């Protein structure tokens, strides 16, 4: 691991005020979604009259690809495509194919609700995608339907996962756990995906945006989830794959089958956070809990040259002091501030 850290440092072009390099870029390709998960886009706030971005407000593929090149010049090596629901963006595999050709990008992944995955898995793989994360919060149709706010059933998502596996994509499953909502799904999810051979990651419910009515007592701490699973299926901890990995990794004792826990609330990982986020309309955010982005779309459309845009990005990153999750519980001012919604900048 030592060698890898040193190697990474060698490529770094820009550091923030807490000595964190710019390494990852999450790109939201749409703010639209066919689900209305209560913790992200509750139906009563994002109903039929909600005004999503117009097509010309979204970054075009050409603009995204240009930005990927510029971010790559500044040290970004990993890209995650997200949304909204990214598979709603027409021709997404074409975008992936282009990003895949950017030399210093060594990893592209996609986060999806899985509803359209069965249709697109093959094309995504052909376009060069290697990894996919599917969000799934329950295996119970009724609970899942309530959680996704649209009565969408589990079957098509599981089919999408099977199709992605058949296509040769590496798969992770993300489950957001909420106290009193889907705790009873932890063990069925762990059992099902252990059997299938896919990594499930249990995520602590977060206070992203201002719409999801978050309270600390809605969070199920990862420690409790580890203990619950360990009682039935003994676990042992694993070393992180790299510095700054967000999930704590475990494996089922006596096997190589992995499972992960993302403790964004109880064990914040801001000190190693190297992620920048680009919203669907081209604003740059340096934290999931940011209130204001920096508009890059106007720079692109006003003809600012590559060096000018890179200079802008570097300035933003160099001033970055974000550590929201680390101060969440001690700073109530931070807790109540206006924040960008999750579907704008992706997870
Ligand atoms: N629509 C895609 C999906 O659901 O996978 C991509 C975008 S979604 C905003 C990205 C991830 O954020 C999903 O895994 C979702 O479960 C997670 N997420 C959304 N709101 C959350 C919250 N309040 N706390 C924790 N995770 C959340
Ligand atoms: Fe849509 Fe994903 Fe948000 Fe659910 S979490 S509403 S699927 S963007
Ligand atoms: Fe990174 Fe902000 Fe999350 Fe901390 S709270 S890990 S700085 S995105």
UniProtKB/TrEMBL annotation:
InterPro entries in alphabetical order: Aldolase_TIM, Elp3/MiaA/NifB-like_rSAM, MoaA, MoaA-like, MoaA_NifB_PqqE_Fe-S-bd_CS, MoaA_twitch, MoCo_biosynth_MoaA/MoaC, rSAM
Residues binding S-adenosyl-L-methionine: 39, 84, 135, 206
Cofactor note: Binds 2 [4Fe-4S] clusters. Binds 1 [4Fe-4S] cluster coordinated with 3 cysteines and an exchangeable S-adenosyl-L-methionine and 1 [4Fe-4S] cluster coordinated with 3 cysteines and the GTP-derived substrate.
Pfam families: Mob_synth_C, Radical_SAM
Domain of life: Bacteria
UniProt keywords, alphabetically: 4Fe-4S, GTP-binding, Iron, Iron-sulfur, Lyase, Metal-binding, Molybdenum cofactor biosynthesis, Nucleotide-binding, S-adenosyl-L-methionine
Assembly behavior: Monomer and homodimer.
Protein name per Swiss-Prot or TrEMBL: GTP 3',8-cyclase
Species: Paenibacillus validus
Higher taxonomy: Bacteria, Bacillati, Bacillota, Bacilli, Bacillales
């Amino acid at each position: 691991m030592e060698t890898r850290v040193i190697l990474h440092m060698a490529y770094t072009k820009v550091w923030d005020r807490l000595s964190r390099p710019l390494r990852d870029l999450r790109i939201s390709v749409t703010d639209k979604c066919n689900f209305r998960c209560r913790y992200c886009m509750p139906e009563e706030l994002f109903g039929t009259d909600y005004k999503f971005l117009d097509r010309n407000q979204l970054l075009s593929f050409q603009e995204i690809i240009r930005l990927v090149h510029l971010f790559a010049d500044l040290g970004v090596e990993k890209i995650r495509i997200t949304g909204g629901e990214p598979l709603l963006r027409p021709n997404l595999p074409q975008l992936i194919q282009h990003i895949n050709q950017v030399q210093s990008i060594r990893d592209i992944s996609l986060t999806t609700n899985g509803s359209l995955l069965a249709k697109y898995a093959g094309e995504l793989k052909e376009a060069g995608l290697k990894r996919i994360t599917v969000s799934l919060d329950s295996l119970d149709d009724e609970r899942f339907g309530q959680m996704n706010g649209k009565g969408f059933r589990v079957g098509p998502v599981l089919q999408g996962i099977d199709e992605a596996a058949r296509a040769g994509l590496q798969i992770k499953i993300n489950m957001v756990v909420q106290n009193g909502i889907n705790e009873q799904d932890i063990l069925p999810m762990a059992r099902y995906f252990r059997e299938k051979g896919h990594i499930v990651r249990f995520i602590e419910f977060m206070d992203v945006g201002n719409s999801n009515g978050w309270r600390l007592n809605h969070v199920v701490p990862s420690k409790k989830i580890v203990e619950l699973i360990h009682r039935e299926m003994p676990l042992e901890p694993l070393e992180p794959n790299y510095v700054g990995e967000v999930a704590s990794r475990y494996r089922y004792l006596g096997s190589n089958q992995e499972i992960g826990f993302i403790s964004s609330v109880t064990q914040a990982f801001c000190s190693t956070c190297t992620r920048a986020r680009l919203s669907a309309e081209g604003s740059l955010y340096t934290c999931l809990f940011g209130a204001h982005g920096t508009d890059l779309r106007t720079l692109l459309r006003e003809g600012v040259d590559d060096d000018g845009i890179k200079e802008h990005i570097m300035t933003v990153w160099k001033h970055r002091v974000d550590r929201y999750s680390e101060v969440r519980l001690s700073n109530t001012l931070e807790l109540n501030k206006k924040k960008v919604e999750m579907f704008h900048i992706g997870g």
